Amino acid sequence: MPAKNTLKLYVAGGFYHVYNRGVEKRKIFLDDQDRRVFLYYLKIYLSPKELIFNEIKTDETLTEEEKVEKIIEISQLNNFYKKIDLICFVLMDNHYHLLLRQEEKNGIEIFMRSLNTKYVKYFNFKYQRVGPLFQSRYKGVLIEKEEHFLHLSRYIHLNPLEILPKGKSLLSYPWSSYPFYLGKQKVSWINKSYLEEYFKKFNGFGFDSYQGFVEGYREKDEEKVYYRKLMLDLDY
Known about the structure:
Helix content is 42%, strand content 11%. By secondary structure, the protein is α+β, with helices and mostly antiparallel strands.
């Protein structure tokens, strides 16, 4: 029997909530270097290769030999620039969430296979381990209504609240796309246009700013049940 919420419906131009967690709920990010490496893989998969090559060529911390090795390595990887849009993400200790759009019908399937394989190889080499890192193949759900898109982004960006020390703001959590939407950080491999467009279309659900919506929106009782199902009963 297929696993619940395994990505089944492939739609060109579709938006998907994609997530995975560690086997036996173990941590998949043990330190900040692990998180930086995962984000680096997102960057190199979602950026034009020419941009990455230019960054490598101008990196004064690398020797010429190291530059050549990196360029060769990246040139051999799949590239998903203009095939996959990363809209939101959050990295937690034992799981991650991504909000993605695929241009082609099976884009996410190929992208996630590449991303997870690359990260597992890094993780297993670093920690001298063998075997699977993730509990199963990634899970994913097609977002079928536009308003769900906004609520999913809010859900993803609220994840760190469960681990932040009391008094710390969501903006203090560095492993989320939330700061990018508030203008605190900027990268080319996160596409903010879809979220900004839908926020305007729905008039922010009564909020003047995206931050106000994320941190101030309160669900009605019937919404809590519905969105809990939408957010997949993750039980992390």
